[in-house]
Amino acid sequence: MGLSRRHLPQRTAREWLSSLPVSVMLLLVLLFSTSTDIHNQLLHLGERVWPGYQQLRVDPVEPACNPLVNIEAEVDRLAAREAPDDVTALLGPAEVDRDALRRSVEASVRACEARHLDYHVTTERMTTPVRVYRAVEHGFSDLTLLGLGMQRPLLILVVMICAVTATLTRHHIAMRGIETRLDYRVSYSAQLAANLMLLSSNWLFLESARATIVDMSAIRELVHQLWVLCFALLSLASLWRLLRLPDGLASGGSLTHAVMSIPLYAIMCLISGSYFISQGYAQGVGVYLGALMEHAEIFINVALYVWAGMMLKQTRLATLVFDLFRPWRMPPELLATVAVIVAAVPTAYTGASGIFVIAAGAVIYHELRAAGARRQLALAATAMSGSMGVVLRPCLLVVVIAMLNREVTTDDLFTWGALVFALTAVMFLLITMTINRQSRWELAPVAEALPQTLANLRPLLPYVLVIAGVVLFYRFGLDVAMNEFSAPRILPLMLIAVLVYEALRFRGQQMHTAAGSFRHGGLESSVRGATNDTTAEIGALLLLFGLSISLGGVVERAGIMEHFPQAFASPWAAMGLMVLLLVVLGMIMDAFGAIILVSATVATIAYQSGIHPVHFWMVTLVAFELGYLTPPVSLNHLLTRQVVGDEEVRLSRLDTGTFYQRHERIVMPMLVMGVSLLIVAFVPLLFYGL
User: Fold this and answer.
1) Is pLDDT of 690 > 60?
2) So where are the chain's domains?
């Protein structure tokens, strides 16, 4: 009797075709990365149990030499071979040194005997337990090698499925959402043009690679073909969307607003593609987009971070953390400061503010709103939630800077980064508590708040134990510490462990989380809900990252930086120009691509102008964050709108009052990071030469 239909999972087409394959691929990434750690531990364990285990990893081969050779007969044979012939005899008598030959033969025999002894000893040690253990260890070794080979194809498959999902669900990142029919037609027409440009560019890149690379590997061929397939499907998705005008869109609209609804990736593609075509380099966009493959691990990690953030949204964890602060009756401005400061820690692990906003912005926004924060303040804090931690250990951005610039070390950057973090945190507190504080400062008495906080801490303890268990398992079971390199694979498993705990503890009960109030449906339901939220976000973010690299290629190939002087006579003048340039770069490029570009161009000018390298890179990181918060692009605000919804942003625009109060979500972050940037950039110049 077959499985009854009612026992089959009832899923939507999107869940079968998008969420399910993406979750499988992300789990494969975790499996491949963890298999490396397990394999390393298996090698260490094998060496401890069977010293010399490396010799036991392969079947021994019997030596071909003969250890029973007759030494004197072998000496005679060699002496006869070295005896002079008739021609060489004309040069004079030559004697054969039989003693030297005998010593050589004896040494060869001893070496042969040793090889035979090793063979017999190794054969005797090749017991059944060793063979079983070796088979398991080889299995993990093969899995690790498979993971290394599949990393790039998996990344493209994730981009392909998620980008198509973002296109079909109208989830790409744009300066404003689609509201009218004109917005819709202009947006999807531009997306279709950009996707066709990407398709043709990658096709030309594939043909060029086939023509110039004599022996192209199968993996490289597959990577090129997958890119072509990716943008073919993306073109079909945008065409299908363009031909199917949805209901509910308003009529009318202006062309200016419609242009602003074009996704940023499409704008970047059309600009960079048009430039490369004008230069006779039509495959240029495909070439620079292929740079994603040079940093495949970083961008796979982006997907894992977003997935972990969406799983966090499914748990009670954030609500329980905020419950610790609620008894103190903090004014919303102070609570927002606490939230932004606490968010700096996970930001330091994710490595970029945009990633953190996508991953956890919805959690922060809804919890601040639940605690009484006004929309403008909650939106500002959400946009800034990832801005402070990029200078803290162990942020991957700082590691990349140190890798590309020998003039600085991670220790120096992190030491000064802690001071920059303290400065921005103080600035956030001062500005929120002075310029537009609308709540009275009436903290609850300690005698009243502390017992309630301790009581609220009790439900949090199981989560702490689950998280600590995962970290300790990796630390002592796999010898992997929690750092910027291991966090991408540990965090998702940590959140899965939390979801397992909640499924066992709360299945069938009513849950209150940042994702809303719902009846807990079990582990599969939670993971599915998180992955549904993840797919479109990953597609929008990774496509934006890839095209920002292409736009950086335009800046590089156009030689824009060649028009700037190679050095300035005054570090003050150099710093003024650097600040403006770096903020602009932060407005149009993602952090990783911008750092690569700055390292190759602007950094040298700064060094030669007398700006200390550590000082320059601290300014760069703060300037980038200001750029991500500054209109007209303001990427972090766009990502905030992406995760909290257009309706919340629309309602925030209905606020009345002063200009600052009506635009606090934009002005306040700019003030915090702008004042911090001026201090970081120019105050240290006062101490130069002292």
Assistant:
1) no
2) 171-289
